[in-house]
Amino acid sequence: MPTTTMSTVLEAERLFKDNQDGQAENVLMGIISQTADTKDEAILREKELALVRLGQYYRDLKNPEGLAAAIRGCRSFIVAIAKAKTAKLVKTLIDFYSQAPLNQHPSSSQTQIVITRENVEWARTEKRVFLRQNLEIKLCSLLFEYQQTKEALALIANLLKELKKLDDKMILTEVHLLESRIRHALSDPPKAKAALISARTAANSIYCPPLLQSQLDMQSGVLHAEEKDYKTAYSYFFEALEGLSTQDDPRASLALKCMLMCKVMLNLPEDVSSIQSSKLARKYAGPGTEAMQAIAKAHENRSLADFEDALKVYKAVSLRSTNTRLNLLFARLSIWDGKIEELSDDPIVRNHLAALYDTLLEQNLIRIIEPYSRIELSYVAEQVKLPLRDVEAKLSQMILDKTFAGILDQGEGCLEIFEEIQNEKMYDYSLDTFKQIGCVVESLYAKAQKLGRSIFDEETWLKAMPF
Q1: PCI domain location, by residue (predicted)?
Q2: What's the pTM value of the predicted model, to 2 decimals?
């Protein structure tokens, strides 16, 4: 019997190669639906292979409903296989919705959520706790991906109550990590950090797989970057890159891009080229790293124009940022109808674009006004290609922040720059010397007072006299 089943699967593959997809589909569906001894491991294995191949066919055909029907129809034989295998098989089929080309179908995401909900309810009815928990985690991830965060957090809260009773550290780590990501997306850093700490605490008590450890490091880097601690964030992103590269995970390119971003934010754009020349970085070089290299070059040249050019060049997916300053910038660049992927569509890098823009704007203004002691504001605005009012506001802020010394003469429409008076080091050394001498004198005076009282005490003096 196993031999017959194997030859049928091979027949389906031959039909696919001969472009007889309809017949191959019928053959695979026949394998899945046929009744056989449920205790025969070989037959069950062939049914699994047929189901996965049928799922791949619907994925390549961009048929979300067909894949949903295949998942629903496989429940009759799924009951017969091991519970651990069941969870892996169902998750594999559901993941086809997120893979190309099926993910390009307009109803793919909604169908994926619906079929995941159905399987959660089915697992609950069948009392398959492990499968239900894994599917609920998958559902939380999907809800988060499609920005249904409120429902995702409610589901996570129920999961955590259950998992803490079962004391399943592995799944607990995954759920806390997912909660941290959702909290971060909702701009709630304290709760995001608390969830990450809980995830690391749970992970420390078990063997943490390299991929999960890399995800923890990645999230740690993201949260430290949000706190402007880019040096620590760089270390975490580096650890994540190494871990993901050992697993050949494509997310390693994102970790590399975040590393380069940290170097730019640390005012070390010259390090970007040296990092990209390393063997590990070359492996994951791509549009993302090229985008950050363009940003680093603009930062090094203190050129706002180069920064804007980078935004124009690296565009692929239309997106509206939640940052008001970036909205204004992109609107001014007239690229909302264009596409911005490598910079704006990256949820991690996107949050730091405003800070990058402010930094480059300041450096560009300083570069322009450096040679002058008095300069017209209209000329500065013309050079940076910004409205005069925005330039005046930014220069005022820089003066108040003591970025440079100067005043705005709005009557004349000019900026006057003063030379910064640098204190001589000898003056500071002299003050410090006099301070130390004062301390010594006070100490000697206190000792002299004590010594004087003991010597010139009247009774002691009378006893010391010879008469």
Answers
A1: 232-422
A2: 0.75
